[in-house]
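hi! just following up on the protien thing from before. the input was this:
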Amino acid sequence: MFAYITRRVLATVPLLVVALYLVHVMVSATTDPLADFRLCLPRCQDGFDQIVENYNLDVNLWLRPFTWFESALGGDLGRSESLGLPVTTILWDRGINTAMIAVPAFLVGSIVALLLSIYSARRPYTKGDYALTGLSFIGFAFPSFVMALVLQNLLAVQFENWFGVKPFNTGRKTGENFLELARDVFLPALTLIIVGVAADSRFGRASMIETLNQDYIRTARAKGVPEKTVVWKHALRNALIPLVTLWALNFSALLSGAVVTESIYSWPGLGPAFLTSIGEADVDLVLGIVIFSAVLTVAFNLVADVLYGILDPRIRFD
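and the predicted 3d structure came back as:
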């Protein structure tokens, strides 16, 4: 197991380096931090020279990433010019805010999707299954930004107009207690839950139906094994394998920043920071968020591979 994990980690390092190199080159090639200063030369020569020094613009475009790599290996990811803070500070602060909605959304959404999958798989093509299928298609049909706007209007605006009470907030505040924090988290987390459950429940249903039709399940039933044991002990473990892959990708994506959802709810997470970094051509912040996202994706995919062996003993890592 240790050797397998080591091989996987070492194999992803070159891929990560190449990806960061290409991102750095492409962002640098499509932006010109000196555009505003060229108009006022020579009056703003000092500012011009400072920008050249900060962005290493006197170095060849294809060689600039190596300067960034040297600093990154020392733990310095640079400074965000658009937000005026070190990139490591932004990743930490914004990452915590993103985790506040990503973790509960993932946990609740995964549990709900799993339960709905089992229900539909045990009762395929019944009225209940058709109802859940219809609801999941509605969840698919609603883009996340539409779902966020609908929930925001109904539960944070109209609810107050109807009942005179504002149960949920539409943005992140500071200095609040746990109850206020829960009111802030609820709507963006609920948006992510609905979108996630719509997809995960369909994958789970298909996997569970396929597993319940396997020969070993028929054998267990023929031997008189209770149905609950057949479903929850024998079938569920194998049916979880496709879902584990999906959950690993979804969770890493959520922790990297739900761009649309966070922007609509004015949530100060990594999503809006990433949009700002692209709009302002903030190379250091773009690279910081990219490397953060890439590391999360690699880590959770590795966790998923390890879980395969736990769920299915036939899988070996030799």
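The chain is about 75% helix and 0% strand.
The first strand starts at residue 79 and ends at 80.
cheers
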